[in-house]
Amino acid sequence: MHYQEDWLLRQINTVINTLAVLFTGKKLTSESIRDMELQISYSEYYKKVFKLVETGDINKAENLLFSVLKNMEKEEQSETPLLALLFYYKLNELSDEELDKKNFSRKEIMEGIESVKKLFLKSSL
User: Fold this and answer.
1) pLDDT for position 7
2) DSSP state letter for 104
3) CA-CA distance, 64 to 12, in Å (whole number)?
4) For the residues of 86-99, what is the DSSP string, one character each?
5) What is the tally of structural domains in the chain?
6) Would you say residue 76 has pLDDT above 60?
7) pLDDT in tens, 15-67
8) Residue range(s) defining the domain that contains residue 18
9) How far apart are CA 15 and CA 45, in angstroms?
């Protein structure tokens, strides 16, 4: 079971990095993550989403994220993918125990990333 969880963790990181290159032109590094956070940390949605994660309500945070993603305007498209990438990147950094306590799983992280990918590929066509 532990092997499967490690495999899924690596798969999630691979997909997030691929999307980061597509959306930002850069691989995720500690520096690029810091840059992305600085770029969107002023955003009301960034603050709300990560406050919910902090308080343990990941499901509500994800619902808010998708509400933002589905209702984004053209001018918001540059920061909205960053919010989604940071959200799932940070969730994937949590331990399995932390995710479990917050009623979330790596499988849900992967499903969320796939949904984000579909939304953005559809909107970029």
Assistant:
1) 83
2) -
3) 21
4) HHHHHHHHS-HHHH
5) 1
6) no
7) 888 888 888 888 888 898 898 888 888 888 899 999 999 999 999 999 999 99
8) 2-123
9) 23
